[in-house]
Amino acid sequence: MKQRSYLALEGITVEFPTKAGRFCALDGIDLEVEKGQFVALIGHSGCGKSTLLNAVAGLVKPTRGAIFLDGQVVDAPGPDRAVVFQDHSLLPWLTVEENVRLAVDKTAGGKNKAERKDWVMHNLELVQMAHAASKRPGELSGGMKQRVGIARAIAMNPRVLLMDEPFGALDALTRAALQDVVMDLQARLNNTVLMITHDVDEAVLLADRVVMMTNGPAARIGEDRAVSLARPRNRLEAIDTAEYAEARSAVIHFLHERYRNPATLAA
Amino acid sequence: MASSSPSKTSGPSASAGGTPSSTTELGVIVPYPEEAIARRSFEPVAAPEHPLVRGARSVAASVLPTMVMIAVLLAFWQLLCGSPSATFPSPLAVWEQSHDVIIHPFKGVDIGLTHFSIQDGGDVGIAGHVLTSLSRVLIGYSIAAVIGVALGILIGQSVFAFRALDPLFQVLRTVPPLAWLPISLAIFQQAQPSAIFLIFITAIWPVILNTAAGVQTIPAAYRNVAKVLALNPVEYFTRIMLPATVPHMFTGLRIGVGMSWLAIVAAEMVQGGTGVGFFIWDSYNSSLLTDTIVALIWIGMVGFTLDRIVSFAGRIIGRAG
């Protein structure tokens, strides 16, 4: 029997019961992710990307198949798979610091109070949000909230960092700033990351591999392309390379030629 | 109009640097056409007001309309009911005939730092009756708040409990408070506990139903956060469910306190003895309509204050989270 990768999805099928019978969202997904690898999942709306990510997070139970992390089966949510949610999901009644602290308290077993506080502030500094530690989420802009969302996730020292379209709700410039934050964190921490995105440039710029999904229902992995740009990456250097252009082109051809958006086909 | 003359403005030196500029008669280059500068007028900046003056001004601006409205209403009322043949007393008549009630509200009430008692029976001022009613509301409402929040969380959290209990609550909540009075009297035999039960049974429904709605509408996002962080049930309850439900809970508590105050007056009117409801009934029976009017004003003010207190508590607790 072959050695499993750090994160291994084997034959993941997810079906939901609906009034019209069973709806098959994902049909036998196999995916292997090495430790420290950054994988972007891209596909049209409704292709089941989020379902796949939620399955890895343990928030959705696969109908068939299994997920292995570091050789162990994963079947319930846990802080070893931290999630950066699309809507940031900060708790509005807690301050920025308390939001991160809640996550740290659940994961920092051996640390004492002062060490935990330092660890919270350290992670807020990594996303340049230490200055807003005592603010509440309602006082922050969308980009700042998502920075805190990222700080909360990385503060948990996860074995896999899951990002569910983290910048989907942000404007283009803010999104670019957040992508730079993620690149910086990746250079420092070398996390294993699974990120969902709609944005071709985001996928190519951030990821080591872009996994392209076919349209649902019963979505599968259509193509899996490595992006062999050196790390650490720099936006301005990366976009002028031939590899960036080729990878970008490959993803766009997949999304707009081979698997066009079902919504635009109908139109 | 030197600046509009093309021979003087369109020199290469003037347009250098890309900023709009012009040359004056003296050949001095200024960055903008003179007339544009001349045209510009600046509003004189008002001297900053003293904070106290500003505060007084904003208070006056919000309170003054109410004061004026009350004065207009009183004048109108006086005009309408001022004639000797009027069946309803005018404000001046209220002031004259109920002078004692207005001036001595605390008659028969003994309030000290360490003790508090209301004279049993006999001649008690309106404030004494209001305090009696308030103490009943306080007890009945407190019990309703505690049990109501607990039941609300139960049926909000458990689908089974919701299906079992919600229909029952929906039917019982439509029963008017006074309809419970015979049952309450039959159970408790005495005025005081049956009045308290009446308050309890009146106030509890909005507390239960709003709390349950609050628990049921906790965003899925917060539940997912709790799952990913692997919060245990106690942590989920204190860190997520309670803070997320507080606004709904206090909506229910606010409606509940208003309904309690409505119910207590009605109950005391029927039951007799003490309390502001009894005071109204008593003054009506003694043909002291002006006393009733004074009591109505007291009831309104106290009800308003209760509502403000609960809403203020809700804001404080919601913020503290």
Automatic annotation (TrEMBL), chain A:
ABC transporter domain span:
7-240
Main subcellular location of this protein, as a coarse class: membrane
Alphabetical list of CDD domains matching this protein: ABC_NrtD_SsuB_transporters (cd03293)
- The name on file for this protein is Nitrate ABC transporter ATP-binding protein
> How is this protein situated with respect to the membrane?
Peripheral membrane protein
Q: Which family does it belong to?
A: Belongs to the ABC transporter superfamily.
Reading the lineage from the top rank, the first entry is Bacteria
Tagged with keyword Cytoplasm: no
What species is given as this protein's source? Sphingobium chungbukense
Per UniProt, which keywords does this protein have? ATP-binding, Cell membrane, Membrane, Nucleotide-binding, Transport
| Annotated InterPro entries | AAA+_ATPase (IPR003593), ABC_transporter-like_ATP-bd (IPR003439), ABC_transporter-like_CS (IPR017871), ABC_transporter_ATP-bind (IPR050166), NO3_transporter_ATP-bd-like (IPR005890), P-loop_NTPase (IPR027417)
Any one of the GO CC terms:
plasma membrane
**Where does the record say this protein resides?**
Cell membrane
A GO MF annotation of the entry reads:
ATP hydrolysis activity
